[in-house]
């Protein structure tokens, strides 16, 4: 079985087709979809043959592949394919030998760039890649990473990443925490952002004509492709977009504010070694009191962060933020008003 990059592209494409509940994929449509993706990536590609797709399916069903459980459902004289388990994806499976080989090759190439200023991000990435490449061996892991492998929607990450690179318009079925049922929207995907072990997709929403529409992956129900012209992003510089904020929420017209905080006790040293934001400026007022100033937008994530420090922080300014935090703490305290507190 071929272990080149085209094989992996085909497996991922077939996986997405088998998992799509909104469309029936017959052998002919699987061939068309794989050929379309290959042509987009390599314009000189000759596409893919019927026999190759059949061999790919056999490989994915084998123990050398992913042992997928595939249904073959007859409709008239034709048969379409879908996963027996609608929630299954090879993205959730341990790496197989094909992927391990590809990953190890990628690590060797990336390692050549270590030490170069523009590739500092690889100092954190390479250990993760190496640990992933040895996941199926007897070698025990020696590093633990802060991630949630059970997070709903994480299986969409690869497909959304590909949609951004290939400039594919998406129809997203989404259910935010305020809604009783899912609703659909169109999105031209631009950017993926991780915050607090959750992933968020940013893009252009044509209904609202908004370029920084934000969707949490764990609230996405389904994603399908739309055959519409893609609107490129010429409005938002994502490096700058997140510079003046904590988290991912920035309402239109929201400007950064100077936030002054007083931390006390052992929390002072913690905040010094793990700054809340890149704009943080700190000075000791005495041996037990640290003043911290930030220049950020006041959003939901900032408030949640401040509340997490409880009695170890006091918001000095702006006054409206101080009042909001105080109200939140009072509401929390009132929940225990009918109980005797012993200190």
- What is CATH's topology name of the largest domain? Arc Repressor Mutant, subunit A
Give the distance, in angstroms, between the N- and C-terminal Cα atoms: 68 Å
| CATH C-level category of the largest domain | Mainly Alpha
Q: What ranges have pLDDT less than 50 throughout 5 or more consecutive residues?
A: none
Strand order, largest beta sheet: 7-6-5-4-8
The biggest beta sheet reads: 5 strands, antiparallel
- Work out the strand percent: 15-25%
**What percentage of residues falls in helices of 4 or more residues?**
25-40%
**Assembly type:** single chain
Radius of gyration: 25 Å
CATH architecture of the largest domain: Orthogonal Bundle
Molecular shape: elongated
- Overall number of strands: 12
User: Number of helical runs?
Assistant: 10
Count up the domains.
4
Order of helices and strands: HEHHEEHHHEEEEEHEHEEHEH
Average pLDDT reading: 84
- Going by helix content, strand content and strand pairing, the class is alpha+beta
List its salient traits.
4 domains, alpha+beta, four-stranded antiparallel beta sheet, SH3 type barrels, about 25% strand, five-stranded antiparallel beta sheet, Arc Repressor Mutant, subunit A, 12 strands, elongated, about 350 residues
